[in-house]
Design a protein that fits this description.
This protein has 293 residues and is an alpha/beta fold. It has helices spanning 2-17, 21-35, 40-53, 59-85, 100-108, 123-134, 148-160, 171-179, 212-218, 252-269; strands spanning 95-98, 113-117, 138-142, 165-167, 183-187, 196-201, 204-209, 222-230, 236-240. Strand 3, helix 7 and strand 4 form a beta-alpha-beta unit.
Length: 293
Amino acid sequence: MRCLLLAPIVSLARAVGRLPPRVLRVLAHAAWLLSWPLLGGRRRIAATNIDLCFPDLSAAERRRLLSANEQESWRGLFDLLRAWYAPAHSLHELARIDGLEHLRAAMDAGQGVLLFTGHFTHTELAVRLLSEALGLRVRGVVRRNNSACIERELESARAHRSLPTLEKKDLRGLLRALQGGEVVAYSADQNFSYQHAFVPFFGVPAATLTSTAELVRRGRARMLPFWFHRDADGRFVLRIEPTWPGWLEGEPAQSAAIYMRELEAVVRAHPEQYLWMHRRFKTRPPGEADVYR
């Protein structure tokens, strides 16, 4: 019964995901305005993160960044629908991709590739744009939805677009994919209360996963940084970089610190497009107070 009740919502989502980008932008702006009274909790989280990470900005500048981030987050929600449901022809010429030679070199060598990225407002659409450009399957690592009905629909939509996923705690599945020569998009920039080290992110100690380099070694794979942003004209720029020097060979905490340093540089270029609504600093070093109280 619950799955039957979901059917009209799915039909609407499919229809919306096929709309032209200019229409989706209008809908995203309208959704932002209408949702303003309902998202106070998430707004406070984002505001706290922005205050912590951009202390040099004036209060007015931080408020403008928060507002821009909320609007980009709504655009990102509609970008999810595009990633899942938009026909391939509607995505042609939507992105410029730099650094594909690094990915192709690893694939030509028979290695799996971990595309190491972060939680931006349009991550899944960027992964699909890369998949369309390469003409191959790119897996993602996600948290499964608590509803079995919703999860089946999401995974069906992703698989139909060559974007099947792995559950974020399925380490065996991730290793098999990498050992099998697959390309996997992976983010480790959310709060971790296990296997973590406190490393600086915008000068704030952030609990960051330390096992990613070991996963790459065990998977006999190559890690390549994968970044992306939306330009003012609505098109995307995707960038694949060489592996960071010292990242694979360093101590776990050193590798985590390199990741946060590189991610911070990317976020600073387009801070409104980062997922600030997540409690990034939820886990605190011993003796430090909760920053989200």
